[in-house]
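Worked example 2:
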Amino acid sequence: MRRWGSKQAAAGASWREEERVVVGETGGGRRGRGRGSERRGHASLTAKPVRSAAAAAAAAGMGDSGGSVVSVDVERISFGGKEHHIQTNHGSVSVAIYGDHDKPALITYPDIALNHMSCFQGLLFCPEAASLLLHNFCIYHISPPGHELGAAPILRSTPVASVDDLADQIADVLDFFGLDSVMCLGVTAGAYILTLFATKYRERVLGLILVSPLCKAPSWSEWFYNKVMSNLLYYYGMCNVVKDILLQRYFGKGVRGGSTEPESDIVQACRSFLDQRQCMNVWRFIQTINERKDLTENLKQLQCRTLIFVGENSQFHAEAVHMTAKLDRRYSALVEVQACGSVVTEEQPHAMLIPMEYFLMGYGLYRPSQINCSPRSPLNPFCISPELLSPESMGVKLKPIKTRVNLKA
């Protein structure tokens, strides 16, 4: 099992203003996959059917660390990953895994009505980003309850999960796979859940990469739109009005089209994807997010570094700016992406590459030098061309980054 080395996990490196380079901190290691968590005891298996020999082998390797029961159902999905259905203390959750299990873990969480196929595919299909992330991480895509491909409707008698329940689900998932400290990547509602997870389980989060994040309780306008969507979903299903509201939430006007401009391919694909959603499962997640609490007072207590992206035209731009202002400025940075909506991972994934690459340098993580590089990316961290240090040339605006001070000897 690969662990975070001292170079990756050591505390006290700094932000380098002149190069916009993020160089990092925080500690933590990963347990082996067969080990349970001393903090939380749920890693035993039930007799729920396992559909492949590989799944059976994986199940046999999981340790039993105590009282509660976790079951897994594994099957291959279309892009070569494996999808695990894990029964946690707060209901079933789907986790799709890509990459080498011996590498450090990156967990993702999508926005309302999306899953990893519709929220992170654009980023992972960007060759430079894929080489950066898959070279360094095993990626664990966690879906909100009932948002995975082919999900069945959640029983109406099942209580609607709270945001705290969803954060605790993540802890259960990490315990099941024997993961200790992880990197987190979330979009909007998913960014909120991961931020809440980081405030509740600080020692388990190495870093946060948040895209158009939420951190406050819903504004009146957001609460109203969510209520409208909830009522329409409940009575009419995934109708065109609901899809239009969601697409406005996800994307900027430039790709959504209009009376004279057709919708872009990405918006058409997302519209088609929304047709496949289980309406009542989406309704449940909206109910959960609409009852969220304000995390502002907890942000200063975060012990990890945070990189925030937000589209300039995102409905949640002001919230991302607010969150950045409340975070410790020594540990955080804001990247504004011009002419983009909320889901930067799909609309302009290339704009995330350079900031992410510099962010991960602080953990001793680089992209493999043998991969052919794009002019957009500093593939070799030791040979950075001056023109690559101007994010504005990519349509990216970086907020000023203050020099970070060493906190530990």
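The longest strand covers residues 91-98. Residues 373 and 379 are 6 Å apart (CA to CA).
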